[in-house]
Amino acid sequence: MRWILSITALLILCISAIYVGKINAINTASLSSQNKISTYMVKFRDVTLSIASNYANLFNRHSIFCVSNEGEEFFDNEDAFVFKNEREQLTVFKNSNKISYRLLQKESSQGIAVNSEKDAAKLAVGFLKKNRLPFSYEDIFIDFCGEFYNVKLINNLNGIALHAFNNVITVDIYGNVVSLDYFNVDFLKYGSSELLDIQRASERSGILIPEEIFKNGKISIVYVYENSIVVPGYLVEGRLRDGGSFRQIISAAGF
Question: Comparing 82-91, 106-115, 221-230, which segment has the lowest mean pLDDT?
């Protein structure tokens, strides 16, 4: 079961969408030859021991200078600083500005019933606030699988939905936040790129888009991360004839 709370679309004049019923795919044949879309480089910051310790403290954990507490462990690996106890693990990567949180021992119930995507979104956002991590988002995409809701926070870049470096929080139906992948990066203007039409982008990527998706699906212009650059692409989604769902993100940079 999948849903999107909201999707911000750029270039509305090129997008014909009906949210209930049939949704016509956008026609980008003329767009790609007449318009260019900005591209961006990603600025990563070097993460020092002090910065990693500050992140650890935000998670209400002991800093590395207090790991003498029973059960607390600290590892300075080649690519990351790792804070760990029996229940939780926090990994602060040195070069990618990524923070990874994992719950190692889940509780059977936190007293919080997660019965819907709305419940999952509330719990996920609350977790970021509780741990005082700066964040923002324009849209939320939630994917439900088994006992887990994957909550993806989507920001905009230059008015286009950014499907890269998204904060992703996974919660279970028992009210546990079992994982977090969190990014803190900046984007610098790099250049511009033509937008390939959807057919050319699909062929180049090797991703086959079913005919019913072309006719009745939704195709949105988004940003993706490719070859160390943030470039334009497409988010293609819709329902298949057999009742299943289709969702693919395709790079469409023409340069």
Answer: 106-115
Question: In the beta sheet, which residues pair with residue 189?
Answer: 40
State pLDDT tens for residues 34-82. 478 999 999 988 899 999 988 888 876 544 434 445 567 889 999 999 9
> Residue 125 in contact with residue 134, Cβ under 8 Å?
no
CB 93 within 8 A of CB 76: no
Q: What is the pLDDT of residues 89-128, one digit of tens each?
A: 999 999 888 999 999 988 776 667 899 999 999 999 999 9
For the chain, the structural domain boundaries read: 2-42+188-251, 45-186
Tell me which residue of 252, 164, 239, 163 sits closest to 202, measured CA to CA. Answer: 252
**Burial of 13: CB neighbours in 10 Å, binned 0-12, 13-18, 19+:** exposed
Collect contacts of 48-56 with beta carbons under 8 A, ≥24 apart.
Answer: 49/76, 49/81, 51/92, 52/81, 52/83, 52/92, 55/90, 55/92, 55/99, 56/83, 56/90, 56/92
Average pLDDT of the residues of the chain: 83
Angstrom distance (rounded) from CA 102 to CA 90? 7
CATH topology of domain 45-186: TATA-Binding Protein (3.30.310)
Q: In terms of Cα–Cα distance, which of 204, 210, 190 is closest to 32?
A: 204
* Helix, coil or strand: residue 16: coil
The predicted model scores a pTM of 0.80
Residue partners of 226: CB distance under 8 A and separation at least 6? 233, 251, 253
